[in-house]
Design goal:
- The chain is an alpha+beta fold and 936 residues long.
- The protein contains 24 helices and 23 strands.
- The strands form five sheets. It has a five-stranded antiparallel beta sheet with strand order 2-1-5-4-3, with helices on both faces. A five-stranded antiparallel beta sheet has the order 7-6-10-9-8. It has a five-stranded mixed beta sheet with strand order 12-14-15-17-16.
- Strand 4 (330-339) and strand 5 form a beta hairpin.
- Helix 8 runs antiparallel to helix 13, helix 17 (687-703) runs antiparallel to helix 19 (761-771) and helix 21 runs parallel beside helix 22.
- The longest helix has 96 residues, at 505-600.
- It is rod-shaped and about 225 Å long.
- The model is unreliable at 1-5 and 801-805 (pLDDT under 50).
- The structure holds adenosine-5'-diphosphate (ADP).
- Residues 700-701, 704, 727, 729-732, 740, 745-748, 751, 757-763, 786 line the site of adenosine-5'-diphosphate (ADP).
- Adenosine-5'-diphosphate (ADP) is lined by residues 700-701, 704, 727, 729-732, 740, 745-748, 751, 757-763, 786.
Length: 936
């Protein structure tokens, strides 16, 4: 699981601040009711922080949020637990799944913390089980409330976004709804129950306070009455005893009066009568007088009840004090002066009221309420046992006095008490009515416990309801899913539609839609089946048709193949025929032209020379025609190759002009060469083919021009050589412009008659230009002349790479030449040419003889005819290269009438160095021999 990146940004800081503020604020709200547990509401914020932020951030947040809890009352363990809960969750629940968070949070809280909490409460709240249980429950609920609210807040704000960065969590609907229902029930029930408990507690408190106030008022009255009644007894007895002069009369009356008063007011434990000096004269019970006589307490003149009454002449109520002499009871003394007839005090009567007599007021108090009566000195007159204050001890005083109100925080036993007080005007005393706050708490705790148990029950109900609702939704959903999953239109067409229990309208709609879809699908499948059946039928038909078609195609292919074979055979035969014819014609032509050339070297009589020239020109023309036919045959059969080399293009064009200058001169036509400066001196192209095209066009131009000028123009643009031959001749009509490039086509049928020609020249030119990757065009109009333009792609070459040898090279005289030639005429011509240059030459008639000779002698050059009897030239050459005496150095030059490219290639492959085609010309022969010697 990848951890998200946390960047400290302002929005994050604001988030953290708000969460802390909210959590701490909620935790600061005072508990809505008093309990032994901790009721807080802000733990949710800490839980949210633990799930949302990494531990480094969420732990300090948890501490800040929990801080207010530590300022409230309550158990230490509870405070620790509530603080630790989000911290534990932060360590073990951050970035965990929904279920894990619930397990970790709920588990830790209920299984680990609660027992510890329980133990702590068991130590302090032992006397009241309800208080103990309700205290533990209240703290537990605070934690659960925090877990639920924090987790819900996280789920609704960030939990859903988790799918962006993590694997989305898969949760069952049952679980989710149970959780949410239980959570919502829990939170809602908590709110309601807390409110009701709070209200109930407030009401209870109000009632108790009301009761106490009322009770204090009643006590004030009762105590006043009680004191004044008893004072009245003393006063009336004193009055009864006043005015007597004779002591014996007083004796008798006093004794009687005291016993009457004692019988009527038994709260007085003793009475005594004194004379004006404070000496005790009478007592009740009477036997106490013995103590007086024994000198235990003969005089009470120092007692305030004596001298205050004597001085003021009025009844007196003393403070509480420890009685002495007549017993050791704690008492309050009431006295009144006994006056003489003239109204002077002659003694007092005193009654000791036992402090225990105030217990009758306490007995009327309800359980839990305590009574405290203080005298004017602040000493305890009477205190209920629960207050644990002894009479005569100092009554408690509080620092908050006199504005303490009715709630005393640090009251008796160090506990909190409700206290109401009132003054008893009669005695200048104070009556306090106490109620221990704990009693309120314990009286509330059983109610609280019941409510809390109800809360748990409601949450359980929520869980069950959630589960049932989820089941209600998920059952039909699952049934529908199962139905959809089982649906297979190809096999399961009979599956039952799940009608039952689909009470949820949306689901019913989904179901209905699916059923419709299903029906559409079934129909579609039916249609598909039909279409398939049709398709199958169509396929069968198609298959049959295919088979018959295949058979027919096979048959046709067979026919075509055999036709192609026959065509190929015919083509081969034609090529073979042409090769043979070429060879056969060239050999005699070689004789004719060679002989003429040799003849011209001698001084011939003029008429013989003229005849020889005619023979030579006619033979040359014939050779040209032969070459044209051969060229065309080569182009058509695709055997014409390209031989690109560095070519001196200027020289090539000028040579062409030279070649036709004689024919032009005869017709008095000027031939101009106009080469643009853009044309480089050398271009890489097939010189032979370019000059053949130029020659063809030039020859046509001269042929079809009677007067004017012929211009050979050349340009070089965009890596293209553009050559244009313009004339001022007869021109070509527009309708013929397209056909003249066809073979054997002439613009006019009369052309042949008048100008001659084969109709092959332009077709060959076009073929050659296209072979070089170029194009040829014509612009012409009748009687206005024609311009033939062709352009071929070619790169610039090196001008120094080509050396043309327009002159006949001179051969060194000491070289040894072997000529292998079966034709005597041809042999004679070659030998004559070499003899003229004083070169010695040996001749053999076949390849085998040539091989034998080469084995014996080291020749410099072997001129090898190809077609010879016994052993042909190609075989002889390959053997000479293996066995010849001078096998590596000797230069072998082919001399053949075989004018095809493959012939040339066969010669070179056999080890020949150069290739000369018949008819043999002296210049060609000598230049080639010189060239080869120069290379060796
Ligand atoms: P031919 O051997 O007849 O010259 P070509 O293929 O060279 O065959 O020419 C075909 C025809 O094109 C010629 O017969 C002629 O009618 C026409 N032609 C070719 N060049 C020219 C030209 N320069 N002026 C007029 N007509 C021409």
């Amino acid at each position: 699981m990848r951890k998200p990146d946390f960047h400290l940004s302002w929005s994050l800081a604001l988030n953290v601040f708000l969460v802390c503020l909210l959590g701490a604020g909620l935790n600061s709200i005072p508990a809505p009711f008093d309990s032994a547990g901790i009721a807080v509401f802000g733990c949710g914020a800490a839980v949210y922080a633990a799930l949302r932020f990494p531990p480094l951030l969420s732990i300090p947040m948890a501490l800040v949020i929990s801080a207010p809890i530590w300022f409230s009352d309550g158990s230490i363990v509870g405070k620790e637990s509530l603080t630790l809960l989000p911290i534990v969750l932060s360590f073990f629940g951050y970035q965990k799944s929904l279920r894990q968070i619930i397990k970790i949070g709920g588990g830790f809280w209920s299984i680990v913390f609660v027992p510890i909490l329980f133990l702590e409460h068991a130590l302090y709240d032992t006397e009241n089980l309800n208080l103990l249980l309700s205290g533990v429950l209240v703290t537990w609920i605070s934690g659960v409330l925090g877990l639920v609210s924090g987790h819900f807040a996280y789920l609704t704000t960030h939990g859903l976004r988790r799918k962006l960065s993590y694997e989305p969590e898969k949760v069952k609907l049952n679980f989710l709804l149970s959780y949410f229902f239980a959570g919502c029930f829990f939170v809602a029930s908590t709110a309601v129950i807390y409110l009701s408990v709070s209200l109930f507690q407030q009401q209870q408190e109000r009632q108790i306070k009301g009761y106490m106030a009322q009770r204090v008022a009643v006590l004030q009255q009762q105590l006043s009455d009680f004191i004044s009644q008893h004072q009245r007894v003393i006063s009336s007895t004193a009055q009864t005893l006043s005015g007597d002069k004779r002591a014996e009369q007083l004796d008798a009356r006093a004794t009687k009066q005291l016993s009457i008063a004692a019988s009527l007011y038994p709260n007085f434990i003793t009475f005594l009568v004194t004379d004006d000096s404070g000496n005790i004269t009478h007592t009740y019970p009477p036997n106490l007088i013995e103590n007086v006589r024994a000198g235990v307490l003969p005089n009470v003149a120092y007692r305030p009840y004596f001298f205050k009454a004597m001085q003021s002449g009025k009844p007196y109520l003393s403070n509480v004090f420890q009685g002495r002499g007549f017993g050791n009871d704690q008492i309050v003394a009431m006295s009144a002066p006994i006056k003489s007839e003239d109204g002077k005090p002659i003694g007092i009567i005193e009654g000791s009221l036992s402090l225990k007599s105030f217990s009758i007021f306490d007995e009327l108090s309800l359980n839990g309420f305590s009574l405290l009566i203080e005298d004017q000195k602040g000493e305890v007159v009477y205190a209920s046992e629960t207050l644990n204050l002894r009479p005569l001890s100092k009554a408690p005083t509080y620092p908050c006095e006199p504005e303490c109100g009715n709630e005393i925080q640090d009251g008796p036993e160090g506990k909190t008490w409700l206290r109401y007080k009132g003054d008893i005007a009669q005695a200048n005393w104070t009556v306090n009515y106490y109620f221990k706050h704990e009693y309120l708490l314990s009286s509330m705790s059983s109610y609280l416990l019941k409510d809390l148990l109800l809360l748990l029950l409601l949450s359980l109900l929520g869980t069950i309801t959630g589960f049932l609702v989820a089941r209600m939704i998920s059952m039909p959903l699952r049934r529908l899913i199962r139905y959809i999953a089982n649906f297979d239109p190809s096999t399961n067409r009979e599956s039952k539609i799940p009608h039952q229990a689909l009470h949820i309208q949306e689901l019913t709609s989904v179901n209905a839609e699916f059923v419709k879809l299903e029906q559409r699908l079934l129909k579609a499948f039916d249609d598909l089946d039909k279409t398939r059946a049709k398709e199958q039928q169509l396929n069968v038909e198609l298959g049959e048709l295919n088979q018959s078609l295949e058979a027919r195609i096979e048959e046709k292919t067979h026919h075509l193949e055999s036709a192609l074979k026959s065509a190929e055979a015919a083509n081969t035969a034609k090529t073979q025929f042409l090769a043979n014819m070429s060879h056969e014609i060239r050999t005699p032509m070689n004789g004719i032209i060679g002989s003429c050339e040799l003849m011209f070297e001698h001084n011939l009589p003029e008429h013989i020379a003229s005849r020889a020239k005619t023979i030579s020109r006619s033979a040359t023309n014939l050779l040209l025609i032969l070459d044209s036919i051969l060229d065309w045959s080569k182009i058509e059969s695709g055997k014409m190759g390209i031989d690109n080399r560095d070519t001196q293009i200027h020289e090539l064009l000028h040579s062409a002009r030279e070649l036709y200058l004689y024919s032009a001169d005869i017709k008095d036509i000027a031939v101009d060469v106009n080469i643009d400066s853009s044309v480089p001196s050398a271009l890489i192209t097939d010189a032979g083919k370019v000059s053949q095209v130029v020659n063809n066009l030039l020859s046509n131009a001269i042929k079809f021009t009677d007067e004017g000028t012929i211009t050979i123009g050349a340009e070089y643009r965009d890596n293209h050589l553009i050559i244009a031959i313009s004339d001022t001749g007869i021109g070509i009509s527009e309708d013929k412009l397209n056909t003249i490039f066809e073979k054997f086509e002439q613009a006019d049928a009369s052309t042949t008659r008048y100008y001659g020609g084969t109709g092959l020249g332009l077709a060959i030119s076009k073929g050659l230009v296209e072979l070089m990757g170029g194009e040829i065009q014509v612009k012409s109009a009748l009687s206005e002349g024609s311009t033939f333009t062709f352009f071929i792609p070619c790169k610039e070459g090196e001008s120094s790479a080509v050396k043309t040898m327009s002159e006949v090279a001179t051969l060194p005289e000491n070289i040894h030449v072997l000529l292998a030639e079966d034709n005597d005429i041809n042999a004679e011509i070659v030998m004559d040419m070499l003899k003229g240059a004083n070169v010695r030459c040996i001749r053999t008639r076949n390849g085998l003889d040539a091989l034998e000779a080469a084995k014996k002698y080291a020749f410099d050059v072997i001129i090898m005819d190809c077609q010879m009897p016994v052993m042909d030239g190609v075989t002889a050459t390959s053997l000479i290269r293996k066995q010849g005496k001078n096998k590596d150095e000797v230069r072998i030059i082919a001399l053949t009438a075989n004018a095809f490219e493959e012939d040339r290639q066969a010669c070179l492959n056999a080890g020949m160095d150069a290739y000369l085609s018949k008819p043999i010309r002296k210049r060609m022969l000598f230049n080639t021999v010189a060239n080869q010697l120069a290379k060796s």
